[in-house]
Amino acid sequence: LQEMVDDGRVSSDNTEAIKVLDYLSTEGISRIVRENGLQMNNFPDVRRMACTILGQIGGEESKDALVTVLLNDNEPMVRSEAVYALGQIGLNENNEVSRAIAWVILQQDTIAPDNNFAFAALLAFDKLAQQNNGIKDEEAYRAVIAIASGNYIRDVKYKAREVLNNLRSYQ
Question: Which of 46, 87, 110, 119 has the fewest beta carbons closer than 10 A?
Fold first, then answer.
């Protein structure tokens, strides 16, 4: 599928490819296969790569699949890739994407939050703002402020302040 995307043979109107990627992006999360009590289909690398490709394809269906991953997957690298891909796509009608990102940020462990996810979310907020002439969602602002003042490494907090300034420039 990656080669097909790279060659331009797959676009956002190719529903078959998106359905396959949607399936792969939730393998082991929405469908769990157990054998002798152990989960046999937990493939976070496959889910992460599916998110990457969905972000490259773009479109409404890809966005919907990525929001599902963001809200349901607990694997940090998969969530980080899903949020970054959502920023690449840039769709945020009715603040659906910005609210999903904000919700996940605000649900993070305040003692040991995920710096990589927070940074990817900040990049996504920045891209969403660029592609939608700003973000009009107070939850997004609350999430960025939570990162800027939270228990994150200095570079993440600095990026949060930068994104907050960028968001304010649209008002």
Answer: 110
| 3-class DSSP state of 94 | helix
- In 3-state terms, what secondary structure has residue 96? helix
Tell me the HSE value of 50 on the side-chain side, using a 13 A CA sphere: 27
pLDDT of residue 32: 79
**Among candidate residues 48, 61, 55, the one with its CA nearest the CA of residue 19:** 61
DSSP assignment of 25-48 equals: HTBTTTB--EETTEES---HHHHH
Compute the distance between CA of residue 168 and CA of residue 153 in angstroms, rounded to an integer.
23
pTM greater than the 0.90 cutoff: yes
User: Residue 160, Cα to own-chain centre: how many angstroms?
Assistant: 16
CA distances from 82 to 36, 56, 59, 110, 166 (A): 31, 11, 14, 21, 22
Between helices 115-131 and 154-168, what is the axis angle to 10°?
20
The pLDDT tens digits of the residues spanning 58-88 come to: 999 999 999 999 999 989 999 999 999 999 9
Mean pLDDT, residues 147-161 taken together = 97
- Residue 112 dihedral angles phi and psi, to the nearest 5°: -135, 70
CA–CA separation, 20 vs 109, rounded Å? Answer: 32
